[in-house]
Write a structure and sequence with these properties.
Radius of gyration: 22 Å
Number of helices: 12
Order of helices and strands: EEEHHHEHEHEHEEEHEEEHHHEEHEEH
Protein name: Adenosylmethionine-8-amino-7-oxononanoate aminotransferase
Bound molecules: pyridoxal-5'-phosphate
Shape: globular
Subcellular location: Cytoplasm
Number of strands: 16
EC number: 2.6.1.62
Organism: Sphingomonas jejuensis
Function: Catalyzes the transfer of the alpha-amino group from S-adenosyl-L-methionine (SAM) to 7-keto-8-aminopelargonic acid (KAPA) to form 7,8-diaminopelargonic acid (DAPA). It is the only aminotransferase known to utilize SAM as an amino donor.
Oligomer: single chain
Strand order of the largest sheet: 4-12-11-10-7-5-6
Structural class: alpha/beta
């Protein structure tokens, strides 16, 4: 009997908790000898594949030389290498790099930078605009700027107020633009968005032109534009950043997940020179007040530097394009299925909604589907009745086919009502 309290897990349901002992590429191997295909990149982090030799070697090498060093007023090679590597491939306007440990902290840092910017300029704007159905992490600030719902009902009394801009669903973009214009006019510190696809909100996609229009409205009103590319970064959407497809550059950019190729935790918040300048003075009270014990941990930075080297030396975007093509082809099959109500694809991320009496995250379909996929040797974790496939870029054709075949089986079982939690 384990003492471990797992995240996003209802232990009262007694669902099995597989014990993984080894991973390689898109594969996981369990203590009881099973081979499992990782269809969700271990919660959206693994890009090049598990235990990529260059990343694993960089971690081992760095761990033997410098494990950890305070980062307030000190620096080290791997952090400098990551900063230089990011400068080489990220938008030139994002001149400054602040390190933290997770996507949630990258978002907290972004929000604090935005408020610090306005305070130090003597114009204390503090209202944050957010996009409906958004997700930005599970700390209090990150939850505050994310969608309210069952995930955070117990904590709601502590969450700060935000203004929510309606999601720009296809055909409803003008309502989004009107609301954004109105809220920007009323005065706001920043607008935080997931570019092109809202992950935890159900893999909801919107048009690059809409992202470009939203960015333009913010620029017009001086509202800082925060792009949370924690999930969309590092090739997921078909390009290095989702923002690229809209031809925009945010004022603040959050990156994590694939920053180390998904091997170890690390995050960065990148900012423009204007945001840096607002914190620059001879007055210590104007400095940026944020730190965590492991800020820019050298071992994590060595993994990120290896990831950046892989992006430099290897045809990563070709692999992304190949996977995106295979995903689009695979998604065509379930598209007309009677148990499938909608499909969506963006780059390497493909999603479909299964017909359900009780859609939403707590749909009973979720646990039933997880068990079905595990039986088929697959790690998939539907968001309620939304099944998505987001594998590492190295996944083999047969393994990808196995995922889509199991999804097809699930749809069939829902259509013939032999699935618990399904309609009927
Ligand atoms: C996962 C995610 C986060 C939170 O990242 P953690 O590392 O889990 O804290 C924030 N924003 C987006 C868009 C994410 O997908």
């Amino acid at each position: 009997m384990s003492a471990i309290w797992h995240p996003f897990t209802q232990h009262g349901l007694g669902e099995p908790i597989p014990h993984v002992v080894r991973a390689e590429g898109a594969l996981l191997f369990t203590a009881d000898g099973r081979r499992i295909v990782d269809g969700i990149s271990s919660w959206w982090v693994t890009t090049h594949g598990h235990c990529h030799p260059r990343i694993s070697a960089a971690i081992a090498d760095q761990a033997a030389r410098l494990d950890q060093i305070i980062f307030a007023g000190w620096t080290h090679g791997p952090a400098e290498e990551v900063a230089a590597g990011l400068a080489a491939i990220m938008p030139a306007e994002l001149t400054r790099v602040f390190f933290s440990d997770s996507g949630s902290t990258a978002v907290e840092v972004a929000l604090k930078m935005a408020l610090g910017f306005w305070r130090n300029r003597g114009e204390p704007r503090h209202r944050i605009l957010v996009l409906e159905h958004g997700y930005h992490g599970d700390t209090i600030g990150a939850m505050s700027v994310g969608a309210r719902g069952v995930f955070n009902r117990a904590y709601e009394p502590l969450l700060f107020d935000v203004a929510t801009i309606p999601f720009p669903a296809g055909g409803a973009e003008q309502a989004t633009m009107d609301a954004l214009e109105r809220e920007c006019r009323a005065g706001a510190a920043a607008f935080i968005v997931e570019p092109l696809i809202l992950g935890a909100g159900g893999m909801l996609t919107y048009a690059p032109e809409t992202l470009a229009r939203m960015r333009a409205v913010c620029a017009q009103h001086g509202v800082l534009f925060i792009a949370d590319e924690v999930m969309t970064g590092w090739g997921r959407t078909g390009t290095l950043l989702g923002a690229e497809q809209a031809g925009i550059v945010p004022d603040i950019l959050c990156l994590s997940k694939g920053l180390t190729g998904g091997a170890v935790p690390l995050a960065v918040t990148m900012a423009t020179e204007a945001i840096w300048d607002a914190h620059l003075s001879r007055d210590r009270a104007d400095m940026f007040f944020h730190s965590s014990s492991y800020t820019a941990n050298p071992v994590a930075c060595a993994a990120a530097a290896a990831n950046l080297a892989i992006w430099r030396d290897e045809p990563v975007l070709d692999r992304v394009a190949a996977l995106a093509g295979a995903q689009a082809e695979a998604l065509a099959a379930p598209s007309g299925h009677p148990a499938v109500s909608a499909t969506r694809i963006l780059g390497t991320v493909a999603a479909l909604d299964l017909v359900s009496d009780a859609p939403g995250y707590l749909s009973d379909l979720g646990p039933a589907l997880r068990a079905h996929f595990l039986d088929a040797g697959l790690l998939l974790r539907p968001l309620g009745n939304t099944v998505y496939v987001m594998p590492p870029y190295c996944i083999g054709a047969e393994d990808l086919a196995a995922i889509w075949s199991a999804i097809g089986d699930a749809a069939n079982r829902i259509a013939d009502r032999s699935f618990s939690g399904a309609r009927g």
